[in-house]
Amino acid sequence: MNEKQRTKNHYMPLFFDDFVAGTYCMSPAARGSYIMVIIALAKRERVLANRKVIERLGGIITDSEFDEVLQKCEVDDEGYLHNRKTTKVMEIIDKRRLAGECSARAQHNAQHNAQHNAQHNTGILNPKILNPKNQKPKRKAVLWSMELGWNGVCEEDKAAWSCHYKGDITRVDEELRKMDTWLKANPKRAMKKNWERFIVNWLSRSSSSTDMIYLRPSESNF
């Protein structure tokens, strides 16, 4: 993901009760400066562990209030602030955004393949392209049946779908087994025209629901 994409439309879930509980002992001025530091870090800005820098973000604070803000963050070797929770949440958001883009590309490819096959079957394509010497092997359609389960799913498909799980193909295999079990338990909902779209949508929802588990931990959010 390039820098332009990373700095566009910033958002980060902030659970108010958790934040208040985690900052209850902070002074109002320190808490205000701390929330501004969190916002800056979520926007991928580099914030020096310097009182003057913090004051430019959240207003004038005392030395003790500055120390309160520092206690909530980590300082790297170059003197810049980091907040572990903010970093973790933004990494999850980036992953979900990437999974969404991957899902959109996969759906586009599935539609393109369907159109291509339809044109091929009706003989619309240029006869020169249909020459067996120049024609690429026809891609086998992805299908599912109650008796045989999945058919036509190749390793290239799994590699493409694994973008939902940081390239972990074993997660794709696991989800395919879950889909098979669900479809057999719900035969009335197993009449799909585009099985590849069904798989992509399932994987997208699965990766998003998994990430939400980590967005709100049992302990204080910040």
Annotation keywords:
222 residues; mainly alpha; 2 domains; two-stranded antiparallel ribbon; 9 helices; 4 strands
Note the beta-strand portion: under 5%
Number of strands: 4
End-to-end CA span: 26 Å
Q: What's the Cα radius of gyration?
A: 25 Å
Global structural class: mainly alpha
Tally the structural domains. 2
Q: What general outline do the C-alpha atoms trace?
A: elongated
Order of helices and strands: HHHHHEEHEEHHH
Number of continuous helical runs = 9
Low-confidence parts, pLDDT < 50 over ≥5 residues? none
Sum this structure up briefly.
This protein has 222 residues and is mainly α. It has 9 helices and 4 strands, in the order H-H-H-H-H-E-E-H-E-E-H-H-H. Helix content is 57%, strand content 5%.
Describe what this molecule looks like in 3D.
By secondary structure, the chain is mainly α. The protein has 2 domains: 3-82, no CATH class; 100-215, no CATH class. It is 57% helix and 5% strand. The chain has 9 helices and 4 strands. It has helices at 3-6, 16-22, 28-42, 51-58, 63-71, 84-122, 155-161, 169-185, 195-215, and strands at residues 74-75, 81-82, 143-145, 149-151. The strands form 2 sheets. A two-stranded antiparallel ribbon has the order 1-2. Helix 3 (28-42) crosses helix 4, helix 3 crosses helix 5 (63-71) and helix 6 packs antiparallel against helix 9.
